[in-house]
Amino acid sequence: MNILNGIISQIQSHEGISLVRVQSNDVAFSTIVLDTPETSDYLKIENPVKVIFKETEVVISKDLNPNISTQNKLLCRIESIQKGVILCQINLVYEQQVIKSIITRNACEQLDLKENDTVLALIKTNEVSLSAHD
């Protein structure tokens, strides 16, 4: 699991669902939660939260400015690549934190990924979870 610290900066709620923006360093993450500030104590502006997403949900792009609907975009440097027979684990450095991505070996080779490449890590809004700080 990838876990980053952040602060809730914006909440838009309607019919029991909230679109929440969380500031983590220079990136504003978007996530959808099935709660509202009225139903969940941690959903308050300025509250610290953990931003959580699976390694398998991190898409890698060599195009640093793609015109796509994915809202969560992190400019990263590839620290290392661990190649398996079917899958590769890509260790990315973002703001001095390591984020992991697991993609197919075929995709890794098609993108010609190498250590120290600058890439964009993309995470769909519905794949990001929040957890209140302990």
Write the layout of secondary structure elements.
Elements: E1 2-14, E2 17-24, E3 27-33, E4 48-53, E5 59-61, E6 72-83, E7 87-94, E8 97-104, H1 105-110, E9 118-123, E10 129-132
Description:
By secondary structure, the chain is mainly β. The chain has one helix and ten strands. The protein has one helix at residues 105-110; strands spanning 2-14, 17-24, 27-33, 48-53, 59-61, 72-83, 87-94, 97-104, 118-123, 129-132. The strands form two sheets. It has a five-stranded antiparallel β-sheet, with no helix packed on it. It has a five-stranded antiparallel β-sheet with strand order 5-9-6-7-8. β2 (17-24) and β3 (27-33) form a beta hairpin. The protein is elongated.
Structure class? mainly beta
Q: Which geometry do the CA atoms define?
A: elongated
SS strand fraction: over 45%
Report the order of strands and helices.
Answer: EEEEEEEEHEE
Main β-sheet description: 5 strands, antiparallel
Rg, Å, rounded: 16 Å
Q: How many strand elements?
A: 10
Strand order of the largest sheet: 3-2-1-4-10
Report the helical percentage.
under 10%
Number of contiguous helices = 1
N/C terminus separation: 17 Å
Average residue-wise pLDDT = 93
Low-confidence runs: none
